[in-house]
Amino acid sequence: MTSDDLLARHRAVLPTWMPLYYAEPLELVAGSGRRVTDAAGRTYLDFFGGVLTTMVGHDIPEIREAVERQLRTGLVHTSTLYLIRQQVELAEKIARLSGIPDARVFFTNSGTEANEAALLVATNHRRSHQILAVRNSYHGRSYATMGVTGNRGWSASALNPLQVAWLHSGERLRGLLARLDAADRVDAAVEDLREVLATQTAGDVACLIAEPVQGVGGFVHGPDGLFAAWKKVLDEHGILLISDEVQTGWGRTGEHFWGYQAHGVTPDLLTFAKGIGNGFALAGVVGRAEVLESVPAISFSTFGGNPVSTAAGNAVLDYLLDHDLQANAARVGAILGDGLRAATAGLDQVAEVRGKGLMLAVEFVHPGTVEPDAALTTRVFEACRAGGLLVGKGGLYGNVIRMGPPLTLTEDEAREGLAIMVDAIRSSIGG
User: Fold this and answer.
1) Which of 25, 78, 369, 387 fits a 20 to 30 Å CA distance from 185?
2) Gap between the Cα atoms of 115 and 210, Å rounded
3) PANTHER family attached here (predicted)?
4) What DSSP designation does 254 have?
5) Pairwise CA distance, residues 228 & 42, whole Å
6) Kind and range of the H or E element at 164?
């Protein structure tokens, strides 16, 4: 079968709003470590990891063996109506690592479901459907999570079960806060929060949901300490803080295990997904028992935390900690980040190289402006593929290249990917 046959079949049975990367879409058929192979037999260095999900790499023996052990028992599914040893063990680890006191964990299948569960808990706890969210955010594709997504390209419905008020993101290139000196942005963000509470809400707001680093938004983030400054105001009103760690969790930022820790604050609820399953469907929410118990009726997740996915999750988390992948993310991420900044320092088309650890982005603009250049971004994106490197795209205007390689990335692989990326940028600008 040819790739063209598969593409035609895809278009015949799947909706058009499911995008495919590249002018000539790829079918990936194999993977090992940080590399994947397509149907034509070409191998690529993987710097996107299935959208930051293949966190420890492809075909890792310890994870494969843990899943195979569970499969050999003959039990793939029992539902959470029965005790699941792997689920309890993983919940104990996550509760301990979360930094949240007296924590409880509820497992789901995806980040969307995790955020949906967090919103359910917060609105019940506060008996309010008023939510604070952040501009340029992304929290999922379900009815409520679309409602708190501040990026029009991902808001597939204008209908919303929640009453949402929007805060500034602290973005450094555009918007009102970008006009201020860096030292003044946290104070301005706090003033913005107070004004939003006074003018756009009835006072009894349930929660603020925010990403420490905005994933789909192009790895934009506010100043360190912003969450703590926000939380001082939230605490005055009893408003909960939800930290969406779907992309920032598990040490990816290098400097901390969770993105929220850069802010010197502990959230009431924390959502996780993607990397913890390393490709298996696994996600959830962890929070203070007082808050997470705020569900007044029976609720459970048929597949969330099933024996196979939690077997994988335990192996992933053990591997992550045993190999200190957070430290590797910091070390190898610096090679990539510093290398990209040095290589693009004189290029007017590169507005910013940003991010933390192995969560890095390059934003492209028209020279001498901050006007997004999506066409140039697409040329760079395609040139990376031609050079043997897979990366992601994102940003509010589609002008950001995103990189989220597996946390096992080696220094040599980082330099290899860096060289391909720099060549792609230079050749695309020259074209």
Assistant:
1) 369
2) 10
3) ALANINE--GLYOXYLATE AMINOTRANSFERASE 2, MITOCHONDRIAL, PTHR45688
4) S
5) 47
6) strand 163-167
Max CA separation in the chain (angstroms)? 62
Contact between residue 50 and residue 392 where contact means Cβ atoms under 8 Å apart: no
Q: Helices marked H in 345-410 — which ranges? A: 374-386
Give the 3-state DSSP-derived string for 198-229, with helices as H, strands as E and coil as C. HHHCCCCCCEEEECCCECCCCCECCCCCHHHH
Extended beta strands in 311-374, E state: 350-356, 359-364
The one-character DSSP state at 80 is T
Residues in the chain: 431
Sort strands 163-167 and 240-244 into parallel, antiparallel or unpaired: unpaired
Which element (helix H / strand E) includes 106? Answer: strand 103-108
CA triple 358-381-109, angle to 5 deg? 55
Helices (H) and strands (E) in the chain, counts: 13, 15
Single out the residue of 100, 68, 99, 73 nearest to residue 84, CA to CA: 73
Q: What pTM value is reported for the model?
A: 0.96
Q: Which residue has the tokens 């490709």?
A: 279
**What Å distances lie between residue 122 and 30, 127, 193, 269, CA to CA?**
41, 8, 19, 8
| Element of type H or E holding 28 | strand 28-32
Q: Which residues, in sequence order, are bridge partners of residue 242?
A: 209, 269
Could you report the per-residue pLDDT of 338-393, keeping only the tens digit for each? 999 999 999 999 999 999 999 999 999 999 899 999 999 999 999 999 999 999 99
Beta-carbon neighbour count of residue 162 at 10 Å?
A: 18
Residue identified by tokens 């999570």 is 145
How far, in Å, CA of 120 to CA of 103, rounded? 17
Look up residue 338 and give its two tokens.
């510093």
Phi, psi of 30 (to 5 degrees): -155, 160
**Helix extents (H) in 260-323:** 289-292, 307-322
